[in-house]
Amino acid sequence: MKNTLTVARFRRAASLCSALAALLLAPLLALHAADAGTSSNQLIVYGPVPGLAGSDHYVVRVRPAGVDAPWQKPFVFKTACKDVGGNSAGVVVEGYWCLLSGWSHSYVNFETSGPVEVEVAKADGAAIRKATVHPERFGRHVQLKDGKAYFTLEKPCLVAVDIDGAMRDQDTGMTPSGKPYSGPPIHALSIFANPVFANKPRPDDPGVYALKPGEVPPTNGHWKTLAFLPGVHDIGLAYPLQTNRNYYIPGDALVYGTFHGTGIRGGGHDIHIFGCGTLSGDRLTHPAFLKPPVKGGKEGHYRDQQYCPIIINGPYNTTVEGLTIANPAMHSCILWTASDCDPARPTSVRWVKVLAWRVNTDGFGTARNAMVEDCFLRCQDDDIYPCGLGIRRLVSWHDANGSVFLLTSLSRQNGQPLVVEDCDVIFARKRGAGGEGGRIFNMRGEGRGEGGRDVVFRNIRVEDPRPTVQTFLLQMVTEKPYAWPKPMGREPGDLAGILFQNIQIAAPSVLGERDIFRGGPECKIRDLTFDNVIIGGKKLTSPKDFVTNEHVEDLHFK
After folding, report:
1. Which of 35, 72, 187, 467 is the one with CA 20 to 30 A from 552?
2. How many degrees, rounded to 5, is the angle at CA 507 between CA 476 and CA 128?
3. What is the CATH number of the domain that holds 182?
């Protein structure tokens, strides 16, 4: 009896301690995401963002795949193109493409260490008639049940879900007849299944400054990590970054404003900007549409760069990881380094997503010590200027303008090898024919110096069945109609030595535009190799597959 009473008292005491601990820890634990799953499959889901309305288009639930786990409901963010009226292909109002007026992109972010099952429903209760996951290789088995879509993602990946064939089944750039899309606004959805990020801070960790919504963020002080608490924040224009600091935005936080690290003495080294949260440009006017306009270049002293969501000059040992950059007003993430930077001290961009609606909203600008991997880019200008230590596993989507790979940067490699690999282009649309943008591989007649030697583009997949324009537009000297704003030419230096390997293009241009290589007397295109490059089921086998001029030579085919 005595032992029985002792055990009973012990159990009551343990229960009381557990309840007390839960009560004391509740406010702290509420600041963090829900964590579910087995020991081998961790799933971290972020709930509502205090002070922010969720998407009015979609409801999403997720759970670990293969186990009888309860469904969890992540917060569904939404970014939208301003409703500027009309759908004219080439017109821009306040920096927004009229073609995209009223369009939106809903998205969820969660972290997972294993496969997950996803359920998608329309917020208004209407039935989903068709759903496809893109890139297609990540979601081949989509099922519809009771008006909802179900699919499994086998590993962390960044995908779009095309609902009712809104993108896949119609021409949303230019139609084959040469007219712009004139249908209703398209409301897209993405599922961003991130890996589980390491070293996420807790508000009470030593060296952490926990920033409350509405509080002015400190620019310096006795802290190592600035952690944004759940909710809506505004850091303003060009918040100054500091070296040897971490900046953490969790998945249940949204931050308006821009991070600026161009004035750091000695370069922007040892900076970590990370988390599943959103960095938004919704409260910023495009600098070219301010009164008076803020312009770049020497006259503007690059003042427009402070409108870039993230810009850091001279970075090394620096990482941008996990963020969603929504509706940027300018280029999304620029990590500029000198040509003599040390590749042994790298900088990296990974698991970053860009959802853009305006002109000049390029993706990533990097240099020779940069690695870019596992990112999702829906840009309305160029995605990336290939340069650095490597580029891999990018997902690309264009609606109005912009190229995926802009090759003008290759001369900055200075002979350093570069491999661009395992990338997917899910939609390659454009607002019109001609012009210099909107291609997969683009050289637009600017810059200087030879580039391309020891550069490889391999395992690139363009799955869009309705690309607006051609895959290759490599012009060392531009000519109309493929010139903007006027014909121009690259300074001396050839484009030479590139290997294009295992490039799969689902379809040719819906406008019938030919692939073009155009060199110049002092800037030739030469010694390029095409190994298993297929466009619309046809393997490239001869220079006759391109439109070329006399300054293009030594094209090789395998």
Report:
1. 467
2. 130
3. 2.60.350.10
Tell me, what's the pLDDT at 19?
A: 37
Residue 520 DSSP class: B
Q: Say if CB 249 and CB 323 are below 8 A apart.
A: yes
Contact assessment for residue 306 and residue 258, using Cβ atoms and an 8 Å cutoff? yes
Mean pLDDT of the chain: 90
The continuous run of DSSP H or E covering 13 comes out as: helix 2-29
Helix/strand/coil for 407: helix
pLDDT digit string, tens, across residues 511-542: 999 999 999 999 999 999 999 999 999 999 99
pLDDT tens-place string over residues 186-216: 999 999 999 999 999 999 999 999 999 999 9
- Give all strands of the β-sheet with 472-475 in edge-to-edge order: 405-406, 441-444, 472-475, 516-518
Tokens 């055990």 appear where?
A: 7
Which of 413, 416, 389, 421 is CA-nearest to residue 405? 421
Averaged pLDDT, 243-257: 98
- Say if 175 falls within a structural domain: yes
Torsion of CA 489, 494, 497, 500, to 10 degrees: 0
Domain end position, chosen among 140, 166, 194: 194
Q: Give CA–CA dist 452/499, Å, rounded.
A: 9
pLDDT in tens, 100-121: 999 999 999 999 999 999 999 9
Beta bridge pairs of residue 310: 259, 333
Count CB-CB contacts under 10 A for residue 144: 14
Q: Give the pLDDT confidence score for residue 518 in this predicted structure.
A: 97
Instruction: List the structure tokens of 447.
Output: 């810059």
- DSSP state, 186? P
Residue 289 has pLDDT above 60, yes or no: yes
Q: For 474, what's the count of Cα atoms within 13 Å in the CB-facing half-sphere?
A: 25
Cα–Cα distance, 344 to 432 (Å, whole number): 43
Is residue 44 domain-resident? yes
Within-domain flag for 372: no
Q: What is the dihedral of CA 95, 100, 103, 107, to 10 degrees?
A: -70
| Helices and strands per DSSP (H, E), number in the chain | 2, 40
Tell me: pLDDT of 11 over 80.
Answer: no
- Domain boundary, last residue among 194, 214, 234: 194
What is the span of the domain harbouring residue 536? 403-558
pLDDT at 227 exceeding the cut of 90: yes
Domain membership of residue 29 (yes or no) is: no
pLDDT of residue 35: 64
The count of structural domains within the chain is 2
